[in-house]
Amino acid sequence: MNIRKRLPLLIIATLLMVFGNCIKAQEVLTPLLVNPVLISQKPPVSQSNSKITLNLPFIEDFSDGKWYPSPLRWSDALVFINNDYPVNPPSIGVATFDALDASGAIYSNASHFPFPADTLTSHNIDLSSLKQSDSVYMSFHYQPAGIGNSPERDDSLILEFWSQYLDEWVHVWADRGRTLQDFHAERGRYFDMVLLPVDSQLFFSSVFKFRFRNFASITDNSLPDWGGNVDQWHLDYIVIKTGRSMQDTLIREDIAFRDYPKSLLKKYQSMPWNQYLANPAGEMKYDVSIPYSSYYYNITSPINQVFHVNSLTGGTSYSPTPYNFGNMLMPVDTVVIAKPGSGFETFVFTAPSSPYADFELLAWISPFSINEAIKTNDTVRFYQKFYNYYAYDDGTPEAGYGLSASNPNVTMKLALRFDLNVPDTLRSIQMFFNQTKDLANQENFTLTVWSNDSGQPGDTLYTQENVLPIFVEGLNQYHTYELERPVAVSGSFFIGWQQKSGTMLNLGYDRNNDSREFLFFNIGTGWNQSQYSGAVMMRPVLGDTAAAHISVPETASKPFVKVFPNPASDHINIHIIKGSNREFGRFRVELYSMHGQKVLDVTADDIVDVSGLSNGLYLLRVSDHTDGKIINASRLVIRK
User: How far, in Å, CA of 382 to CA of 391, rounded?
Assistant: First the structure.
């Protein structure tokens, strides 16, 4: 990434020097330091010594992987399988190359000069019976940056073939980094297809394999809060097969979703169930449009498709029969919609009397050929949650957001608006702060709640001073800041912060959902609407409890240790769970109040004294004293 990654900051600094107090602060987006999804996972064991041998055709679109590539086709697990970062991929799921390792952390060999980062290596593929006349070609689709960080010109993505005869990797293709805008202007598309012949006797062996690699570069240490998840490339739809030619530049014999269903709420990804029930029709968005492509050619045929809403909590579902959509000449890019005339235009979510409700949005497309190349890209889901909080974001950050200023006397304010259908009680505010290098965002701020004044923040309803950003390790974990007193709210209200320091607090930023019309910032000259497309990861919790309701899947990984009793009065015990494959020495135990203050930090063997703590709810972290890895993060109740 080299010094050019510092240009935005250098330009800002120059403007501040030139214009003085005319430019005092601004919104800032930065790349992530780590991958918050992978940082909480255990990377799969390398399959580099696997005896798996594959045959042609080799077809991969990464639609069946969850975070890591399938071990059935790949011998390593360094890339990130996702649908968060690409723009208009040919099918759901891509392999993202960046500057982070399999655990989601920056590579230990990272440098501001280009360094070898991610690798994606296939298992052996048997080509021993082939010859040049079999016309073997490899194709793949790729994209720089997506909605992530652009690789610089000195960064690159390369492809190599293994030659048993030379006993070495042979370089066959590479491309230099650039922005997605420049790439699209050059190629006329967001994903470009590369087609390469595999026509040399050097590769016709029983142990042929290929690998993609990227060279990345990170910012230097003078910018500790400016991220490390950078220089991204996205790879999709790899095909190696016989009987091809240089004119064979198309994906063939597949129907594939290109994205997932979206929330059926007009504004929110999630909202409190009682607020929804107060105005269900007014909250609904009836525009269902889930993109997919049919990669068949010179065929005119209807496509069988389904869109269902399934209640997971005993409520009413929307389940029309499958229907044929159109009579289309293929190939075609189109969308799944709700079945016409099926009553969806009047559908509302219902469930038995309960404070919470869950629904599954399911879309499915049916191939009309038994020779469909890939079947795992035919079904997509979205889970609509009605708990006790509002959310504009989907729970996964793609960037960090904050305000930055050079003038230490400026009080900067950030406010996010929410609209109620009935009066309610605000109990806590959830925030997702990104992990930063050297705790660069550890500056106090004042948690603030405002009333509404003609669509902008009005009177201050509540403040809570000396609050610190808290990063919570785990899969999409928010920190809950419990308010010291409940706040009655009605109509519209705003939550956010005030800060004196110019430090960027690095709040999680979801770039796949846009709520900028509800986000405002103030640098002392009045409120301004956000200019960035995305959603800050900040959620108000309402109702009778300060704890946000969560739904824990049965497949969730279990912690290595158990902490009991809970509630506790004077001590807690730390017990290694039977069957754990880890061995531990001493533990580091940290407790945080729901206001964000650390109240306990001790090293212990198995018993921790908590007798000096007041009654209440605390965030508990237990980590391995040796390597610092968090092995239990949960809530602890003190009750005496």
Answer: 15
